[in-house]
Amino acid sequence: MGTAMQISGPQQDDPIATAACWLAGNRQVAIATVVRTWGSSPLAQGSQMVVDGEGNFSGSVSGGCIEGAVIEAALGLLASAPGSKLLRFGVTNQRAWEVGLSCGGEIEIFVETVAA
Order of strands, edge to edge, in the sheet holding 29-38? Predict the structure, then answer.
């Protein structure tokens, strides 16, 4: 994965608006959405992050602790056929500790590619 750049400014507050702009500019886009949480989790269900084909992103699904893994999954989807993937992170998942989800909760994130 290359160096991801977080988008700042007015669109940072609205990842879906950012996705719409990126799609209008013919960029590949994936949307990640928190679909389920258990126990202590960094952000609430419904939180979203968008990722383009270059690894730029806007929004957040975890306040930073698993964003890298979600961006990596989104880039994998964008590099292959359109599709979706359900990601799970939690205290019983060794990968969660590797990417920093040490808050004691669990989180599921649905990542999907979108087309204009």
Answer: 57-59, 48-52, 29-38, 106-114, 84-90
Q: Residues 61, 33: contact at Cβ < 8 Å? A: yes
Q: If you ran DSSP here, which 8-state letter would residue 62 be given?
A: S
Does 37 reside within a domain?
A: yes
pTM over 0.85: no
Residue 40's domain comprises 29-114
pLDDT in tens, 65-97: 788 999 999 999 999 978 999 999 876 555 545
**How many domains, the chain?**
1
Distance, CA of 43 to CA of 46 (rounded, Å): 9
Q: Count other Cβ atoms within 10 Å, centred on residue 24.
A: 9
Using 50 as the pLDDT threshold, list the residues of the chain that sit under it.
1-2, 8-11, 96
Is position 11 within any domain? no
In eight-state DSSP terms, residue 42 is S
DSSP 16: H
